[in-house]
Every structure is written in structure tokens, then in C-alpha cells.
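Priority: medium. Attachment 1 of 2:
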């Protein structure tokens, strides 16, 4: 079993599922969390232990969604359409797949599908985050398959339509095509150029003209198919007033191509750079592909489609209820939200009562009981057992949630790099022009002067930088993936180095996503019937207390089989009750309908009773991430100021900050107030870490952004990076790797300057020719790659 290497307490026991260090005093011996214990149990129950043997990459801890119910109505509709268009008794469907991290994951997902009735074939493409399913119509249940793989830690989602977020994933695929073509063109160009280097001339061989024309043809094909990528990007940058590495690459290609055309026309075969053009284009595409694919691999780990409000059940005044897109709601619409569903717009509660969670919208971790007629804010989540009926008080476009879910593309500019490139390009052009003028004045030979001009522009192309710096990004991203940190935006590498303020949200960021059961040993004291009945009480209930008990029960191996108890009844504001096995079972507030309460119950959050006799009492609390205090102290020691911004009650925010050693805490903040704080305090030096919709506006104002959760489908599509696991060490790990990358960049640039000085000197002396350029280019590239790997190895 491959174990993930994490930055946590030394000599900690590794989790038996993911390898994450097990926290001291963990409630689940041998496992870092209930999710990992649950998934490990499923793998063992179904005889799938080969999964661990096939692991060839670090496995992130199981996310909380392995315990949750999800709405797969969209999948039922898509599978029905696929079956309706099936041919020869075979239906097929492509889906997004989240959670694939290693070969074992691919094997597990394929194995789970193949063992389902009616399954015909499955193909997982981990690099694209896709799975292709083929099955017998009417036999294979895709919704059941989706629910099953979710329990193992993987999520299925719809493939995004054209124009959606998935379109960003086509970049590396397009580069692969260009790279493949230019690789073939480069080999052919070299094939027909080498004889010229060994003395073939028009006077000695009849094939000379054919070889030159073929070399020109393949150079032209590479120039058009591969060079156009850099030409378009360079021109777009100039139009927007931005300089980047594509500009000197484009200038070098144009200079080599036009200079070679002129030399060919005047019969100066010694100055033809056709093979250089094709090879250089190929190498630059390789470098750019390495950079793009590193980021794209991280993006492809997520479902492509950003989370939205989904669908609600519309209750028309005339006619039957219908499923309705929440984004189409208007003022006055009556609708229902399913348990665990999102209230999309500000609404009035029409049900007699409901339990609502506001953590995602204001950071308040404790659910609230609401009565009929109460105004429910946009973004609340139903924690009720039954569907909740509401009346929309605004259209979707006017809702707070609509504003929070908008993604604003970031315009990336690296002013330091732009200043360097501006000076670099200007220097090269001046040196080339002066060198050509000097040779023309000294010899009077136009061809010789143009050869010097072309040589300077060709050899000063940033070949080493163009392939080494993208590779440095890829190496750094790969190192972070091993630590559970995933870069989404390449511009983060520059911005993260200027961070001096780290700002945390509280609920779900500094704390774990779910409340913690403080006395899990109480569950072990219950009888098997008690545990099964308790699981039946909480299995379908989205309340945080129910979720914590459900997670603990499932992790310990309790399952509901055939003949399971019926669904319980919810008494809003009090708890759940269930008639089963000749008894009345209740889970709720201590003292609720308990004629014979046990001593000491009042200090607990929930009591479990049978026929009025308390069987167990449970205490729950927000749990800070295991290493939160340690990481906060380490960040402060590294020179960062630490701040806490929370929508939760001020006293809770201050208490959490005090416990973790955070000197500056602000509670009771609205999303707009969080964003305003960032606007006031950001000096292009803030890193904001959050997880809920109420952090979205702050994400738009922060210099850098990150999130520890990928369950909601919102912030992970806005964040510069995301990190998995139960700890916060990924933040410090990112900063460390960014500094390592900066050292690499500086060394590569220093070598490139030295190389260019020598190469330009040879050109000005008139000693440069296509053969020497073809030799120096790969040598400089190899040395640059050696610098990248040497720096990475030395850390």
C-alpha cells in the first residue's frame, strides 16, 4: 500500500486507507477519519483489497460526501435518453469523474461497474477526469452505480456543455496535437538537412534541390501549425499591453524563417535555418505542454461543472408539481426543496416548521428551527427530514446566492517578468541591428549583414528558458500533488511569493466540515438493535448531529439490511422519533418526552431513548483541524500575519481564534463585509482560505485564494489552489515549493543569460551558422533541464 507523505507530527501512525498521519487520540484507531475507516471497511467487505496493491500515487483522505445522499435525478434523465437512442442493445454515456488519483482508483471504479448487472464495458480516462460507460438498456442501474462509487470516494457528474468550464480542459489536448505534428516535421526537416551539413551541394548531387525544398516544406508546416500558437498569444498580449515569453519565441521564429527564405533566394545555403525552425517549434511546444498539462491534471480531478442551485419542485396553482430549474424561479413561485437541498432565493417558509443550516451562507455552524411565515435567506440548506415548502420573494438573478456563485476571470500580469522581457527584447534587437550595421559597413555584403542579424535573433531565442521554466512548473506541481495540494491557476506561482497576510474562514476551514462526536465510546456500549435503530433514525436526516452519528455508525460497520426500520418522524425543534420493534425510539434534545431522564443529561447536545428511558447521551462540538494551532504558529513564525474572518457569532470566532493563537478575529460578518475587509487590507499580499458561498466575494478581492474542500462545486472552481486532507499543512507546503521554484527560475535565467552572451558573441563575430546553432540549442536545453531537476532534488 502506497502511503502519502504528509507534513504532520513525526512518527505518527499512518492511516490504513490513505496514509495520512493518524491524529493523537483519534476516535477511529488506525484511521485518520471516519471516512477512511468507512471506505476501508467497504473495500474489505467486497474483497477489493487489490486496490491498495495497485496504488501508485498518494491517496487523499476520504471526503465527507461518502456518507451523504446526493441528487442523481440528472443522471436518471441522461441514462434514459441514452437508452432511448441505444443501438444493437447497447447504451453509452460519458460522465465526469472526480477523485481518481492512482491506478488503484481506476481499477476500483472499473471493477465496481463491471460487477453490476447489465454492465458491458467501462473506460476510465484519469487524465481527462472522464469515464465512458456502456450497458444493456433496462438492466443496468446507473443511479445505483453512481451512489456506490460515491461511497468509495468518487463522484460522477454531467459532462459540461460547450462553453462551460470544461472547455478550459482542451488546452493541453490541442497542444498534444500540435506537438505531435511538429515532432514529425522536425524529424523530417533534420533528415533532409543533415546531408547538406556533410557537404551536399547543387554541384555535387542532383537531389540537393529536392532536399532543400523538402526541408523548407517541413519547416513551413512546423512554422504554421506550431508557430501560430505563439504568434496568436504574442499578438493578443501586445494588444492587451502585456508582455510574456511567447513574444521573444515568436520573434525568433519569424527571424529564422524570413532570414532563411532570403538566404535561399540569393543562393546562400549555408545560412538556412529550416531544421532549427522545426526543432525549436517542437521544443517550445513540449515546454508549454508540460506547463499546461500540470495545471490541467489538477483541474481534471474536479467535476467540470460548477455547482448551481439545481432543481426544485414547482407547485403551480393549476396542474401537477413539476421539476423546475432553480435559476428560473421568479417572485411568487411556490416550490419545495428536498432534504439537504439548497434554498436558491430569498423565500418565505410555507411549511409549518423547518430546520435550516446556514453554515454555507453565513458560517453559523448550528442549524436553526424556523416557523411558518419566517423569511429564509438565499443559500440556506434544508436540514429537515421532509421536503420544505417555500414561496420565492425574488427572482434568481436578484438573489444573494446568484451573486456569490459568479466566477470572475482573473487577469494575470507578472510585472517583473514583463520588465525583464521588455529589456531583453530591446537589448537583442539593438545588438542585432548594430551587429548587422557593423558588418555591412565593414564588408559591404548585404547577405553577410543579414546573416549576422538573423543569427543574433535566432540564437537569442529563449530556448532553454522556454522549455525549462514550464518544466519547473510541472515538477513543482507534481511535488505538491504528492502532498495533497493542487494548483489550478499557473499565475499563483508568482503571487504566492508576495503573501504576507493569511486570512482564514472559520467553519469548515479552520474547523472540520462536520461537527465531532466527543464521546464515540457511547456508541460501543449500545446493543446491536440499539445501533441499528439509531442508524435508521439518522440515515436520511441531513441535520449535522444526525450526520455525525451516521458517519460514526457507518464507519464502525453498522449497516441497514433488508427489513430495516421505517423512516422516522421529525418533530422540528425537538428531534426524531421512530416506532420499531414494539418500542418508541427518540433522538433529540435532552429531556424531550423522557419521563425518566438520567442524571447529568443536561450537559449533552442529544439524547437517545427507548420508551422514555435514555440509552445514551451524545455531546458534539466544532473540531478544529488537527494541526491548525501548529500551522498557525508556523505561519506566524515565518513572518505572516494571521487573521480570521467568520460569519459565525463573534464570541465563537474569538474563542476559536484564541484557542489557535490567532491574534486578529472578526465574527458576524456578511459576505460583503468579508470582501470589504480584503479590499481595505490587501496590498497584493493576502492569501484567503475559505470553503463556503459566503467566502465567494472575498475570493474575488484576495490576492491569492485556496480552499480545503471540493464537495460544494463552487470555491474549488474559483480558487487558485485546493488541498485535501484533514490538516492545513498544505498552505505552508505550497509556500515552500513556490520558493524552491523561484530558486530554479533564477538559476535557469542566469544560465540563459550566460549562454546567450556567448552565443550572441559568436554571431557578432560571424562564426555562427545553422549547424552550430542546431548543436548549441539542444545542449543548452539539456543543461537547463539539469538545473531544474538538480534544484528540485536538492530542495
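Attachment 2 of 2:
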Amino acid at each position: 500500500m502506497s502511503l502519502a507523505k504528509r507534513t504532520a507530527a513525526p512518527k505518527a501512525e499512518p492511516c490504513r486507507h490513505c496514509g495520512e498521519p493518524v491524529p493523537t487520540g483519534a476516535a477511529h484507531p488506525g484511521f485518520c477519519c471516519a471516512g477512511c475507516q468507512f471506505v476501508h471497511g467497504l473495500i474489505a467487505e467486497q474483497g477489493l483489497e487489490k486496490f491498495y496493491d495497485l496504488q501508485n500515487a498518494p491517496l487523499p483522505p476520504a471526503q465527507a460526501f461518502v456518507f451523504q445522499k446526493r441528487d442523481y435525478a440528472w443522471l436518471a434523465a441522461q441514462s434514459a435518453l441514452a437508452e432511448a437512442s441505444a443501438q444493437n442493445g447497447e447504451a453509452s454515456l460519458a460522465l465526469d469523474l472526480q477523485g481518481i488519483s492512482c491506478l488503484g482508483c481506476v481499477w476500483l471504479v472499473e471493477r465496481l461497474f463491471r460487477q453490476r448487472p447489465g454492465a458491458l464495458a467501462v473506460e476510465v480516462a484519469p487524465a481527462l477526469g472522464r469515464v465512458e460507460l456502456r450497458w444493456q438498456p433496462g438492466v443496468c442501474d446507473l443511479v445505483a452505480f453512481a451512489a456506490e462509487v460515491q461511497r468509495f470516494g468518487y463522484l460522477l457528474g454531467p459532462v459540461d456543455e460547450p462553453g462551460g468550464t470544461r472547455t478550459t480542459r482542451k488546452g493541453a489536448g490541442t497542444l498534444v496535437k500540435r506537438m505531435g505534428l511538429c515532432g514529425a516535421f522536425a524529424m523530417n526537416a533534420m533528415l533532409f538537412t543533415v546531408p547538406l551539413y556533410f557537404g551536399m551541394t547543387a554541384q555535387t548531387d542532383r537531389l540537393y534541390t529536392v532536399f532543400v525544398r523538402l526541408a523548407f516544406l517541413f519547416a513551413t508546416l512546423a512554422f504554421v501549425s506550431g508557430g501560430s500558437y505563439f504568434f496568436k498569444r504574442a499578438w493578443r498580449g501586445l494588444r492587451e499591453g502585456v508582455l510574456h515569453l511567447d513574444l521573444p519565441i515568436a520573434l525568433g521564429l519569424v527571424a529564422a524563417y524570413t532570414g532563411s527564405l532570403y538566404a535561399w533566394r540569393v543562393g546562400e545555403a549555408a545560412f538556412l535555418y529550416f531544421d532549427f525552425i522545426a526543432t525549436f517549434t517542437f521544443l517550445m511546444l513540449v515546454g508549454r505542454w508540460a506547463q499546461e498539462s500540470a495545471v490541467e491534471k489538477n483541474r481534471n480531478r474536479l467535476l467540470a461543472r460548477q455547482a448551481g442551485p439545481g432543481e426544485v419542485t414547482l407547485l403551480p396553482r393549476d396542474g401537477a408539481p413539476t421539476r423546475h430549474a432553480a435559476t428560473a424561479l421568479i417572485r411568487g413561485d411556490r416550490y419545495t426543496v428536498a432534504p439537504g437541498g439548497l434554498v436558491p432565493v430569498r423565500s418565505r417558509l410555507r411549511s409549518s416548521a423547518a430546520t435550516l443550516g446556514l453554515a454555507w451562507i453565513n458560517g453559523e455552524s448550528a442549524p436553526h428551527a424556523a416557523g411558518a411565515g419566517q423569511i429564509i435567506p438565499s443559500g440556506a440548506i434544508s436540514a429537515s427530514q421532509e421536503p420544505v415548502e417555500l414561496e420565492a420573494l425574488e427572482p434568481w438573478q436578484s438573489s444573494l446566492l446568484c451573486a456569490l456563485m459568479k466566477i470572475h476571470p482573473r487577469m494575470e500580469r507578472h510585472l517583473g517578468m514583463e520588465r525583464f522581457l521588455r529589456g531583453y527584447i530591446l537589448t537583442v534587437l539593438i545588438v542585432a541591428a548594430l551587429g548587422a550595421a557593423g558588418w555591412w559597413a565593414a564588408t559591404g555584403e548585404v547577405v553577410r549583414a543579414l546573416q549576422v542579424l538573423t543569427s543574433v535573433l535566432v540564437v537569442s531565442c529563449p530556448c532553454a528558458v522556454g522549455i525549462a521554466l514550464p518544466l519547473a512548473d510541472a515538477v513543482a506541481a507534481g511535488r505538491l500533488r504528492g502532498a495533497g495540494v493542487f494548483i489550478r491557476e499557473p499565475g499563483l506561482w508568482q503571487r504566492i511569493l508576495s503573501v504576507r497576510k493569511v486570512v482564514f474562514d472559520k467553519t469548515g476551514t479552520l474547523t472540520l466540515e462536520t461537527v465531532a462526536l466527543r464521546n464515540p465510546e457511547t456508541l460501543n456500549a449500545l446493543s446491536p438493535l440499539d445501533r441499528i435503530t439509531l442508524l435508521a433514525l439518522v440515515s436520511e436526516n441531513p441535520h449535522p448531529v444526525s450526520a455525525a452519528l451516521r458517519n460514526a455508525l457507518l464507519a464502525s460497520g453498522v449497516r441497514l439490511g433488508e427489513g430495516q426500520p421505517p423512516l422516522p418522524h421529525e418533530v422540528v425543534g425537538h428531534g426524531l422519533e421512530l416506532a420499531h420493534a414494539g418500542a418508541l425510539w427518540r433522538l433529540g434534545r435532552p429531556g424531550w418526552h423522557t419521563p425518566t431522564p438520567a442524571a447529568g443529561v443536561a450537559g449533552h447536545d442529544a439524547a437517545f431513548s427507548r420508551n422514555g428511558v435514555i440509552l445514551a447521551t451524545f455531546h458534539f462540538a466544532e473540531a478544529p483541524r488537527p494541526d491548525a494551532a501548529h500551522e498557525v504558529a508556523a505561519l506566524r513564525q515565518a513572518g505572516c500575519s494571521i487573521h480570521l474572518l467568520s460569519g459565525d457569532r463573534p464570541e465563537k470566532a474569538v474563542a476559536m481564534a484564541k484557542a489557535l493563537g490567532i491574534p486578529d478575529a472578526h465574527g458576524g460578518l456578511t459576505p460583503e463585509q468579508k470582501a470589504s475587509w480584503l479590499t481595505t487590507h490587501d496590498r497584493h499580499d493576502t492569501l484567503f482560505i475559505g470553503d463556503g458561498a459566503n467566502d465567494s466575494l472575498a475570493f474575488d478581492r484576495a490576492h491569492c485564494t485556496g480552499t480545503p474542500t471540493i464537495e460544494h462545486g463552487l470555491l474549488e472552481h474559483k480558487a487558485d489552489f485546493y488541498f485535501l486532507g484533514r490538516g492545513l499543512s498544505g498552505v505552508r507546503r505550497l509556500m515552500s515549493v513556490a520558493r524552491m521554484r523561484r530558486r530554479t527560475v533564477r538559476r535557469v535565467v542566469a544560465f540563459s543569460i550566460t549562454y546567450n552572451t556567448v552565443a550572441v558573441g559568436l554571431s557578432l563575430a560571424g562564426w555562427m551558422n545553422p549547424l552550430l546553432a542546431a548543436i548549441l540549442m539542444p545542449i543548452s536545453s539539456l543543461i537547463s533541464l539539469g538545473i531544474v531537476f538538480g534544484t528540485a532534488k536538492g530542495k
